[in-house]
Amino acid sequence: KAGVTQTPRYLIKTRGQQVTLSCSPISGHRSVSWYQQTPGQGLQFLFEYFSETQRNKGNFPGRFSGRQFSNSRSEMNVSTLELGDSALYLCASSSGQVEGYTFGSGTRLTVV
Amino acid sequence: AQKVTQAQTEISVVEKEDVTLDCVYETRDTTYYLFWYKQPPSGELVFLIRRNSFDEQNEISGRYSWNFQKSTSSFNFTITASQVVDSAVYFCALTRTSTGANNLFFGTGTRLTVIP
């Protein structure tokens, strides 16, 4: 059973640019959640999508957005990048019930 | 509000020693789930265990064991006979049981270093 796939693995962007990260969940899983991990703030919830609908959203500015496609793949977008957006972005896949979340290896974003 | 506290920022032990990682949580929900994840240097969060608030039985899985005590709001994790491969950052997390509100609240993590 393939795990959660996040692409790209590493990314370097310039302040002011925008970026799109991708997450392919485990086959059959309809829930995809996104988390930001930084040394200062730790792991913080961004948003969760279930069957193409955003079900829950964390406390992040509107520059952070996401979407989910009919095949459950999800993308998150960050516009007008700031230096503070440098982080490891992790995607978690689940079947939609509280049984456990399987995380991908993450995308490490560096904003310069 | 949900909150998870992992007071131990870093722990170093010599191989084969036992080590306990502490986790204290706060929640007003009567039903909730607790998790432990391991994050090796590769960055991926590896699921270790899930426990719901109604199940206070301790659990043992190989060298790993977990002690859940609702009375003290703690969910501690013990590694017996530690190995170098156990070196990683360990996170305790909490989520409420609610359809559509399944986000995890993480502690700040404990970095475990096992010295050969």
Please, could you describe this protein's structure?
The complex is a heterodimer of chains A (112) and B (116). Chain A is mainly β and 112 residues long. Chain A is built from no helices and 11 strands. In chain A, strands 2, 4, 5, 6, 9, 10 and 11 form a 7-stranded mixed sheet that branches. Chain A has a 4-stranded antiparallel sheet with strand order 1-3-8-7, with no helix packed on it. In chain A, a hairpin with a 3-residue loop joins strand 4 (31-38) and strand 5. Chain A is globular, with a radius of gyration of 13 Å. The mean pLDDT of chain A is 93. By secondary structure, chain B is an all-beta fold. Chain B is built from no helices and 12 strands. In chain B, strands 2, 5, 6, 10, 11 and 12 form a 6-stranded mixed sheet that branches. Chain B has a 4-stranded antiparallel sheet with strand order 3-9-8-7, with no helix packed on it. The A-B interface holds A 31, 33, 35, 42-45, 48, 50, 55-56, 58, 88, 90, 92, 94, 96, 98-106, 108 and B 33, 35, 37, 42-47, 50, 91, 95, 97, 100-109.
Biggest sheet descriptor of chain A: 7 strands, mixed
Structural class of chain A: mainly beta
What would you report as the Rg of chain B, rounded to the nearest angstrom? 14 Å
Distance between the termini of chain B: 41 Å
- Give the oligomeric state of the chains in this entry, treating copies of one chain as homo and distinct chains as hetero: heterodimer
One letter per element, helices H and strands E, the order of chain A comes to EEEEEEEEEEE
* Unreliable stretches of chain B: none
Beta strands of chain A, count = 11
Helix proportion of residues of chain A, in percent? under 10%
Mean pLDDT of chain B: 92
What pair of chains forms the biggest interface? A-B, 27 and 23 residues
Q: Return the average pLDDT of chain A rounded to an integer.
A: 93
Radius of gyration of chain A (CA) equals: 13 Å
Task: Provide the helix percentage of chain B.
Answer: under 10%
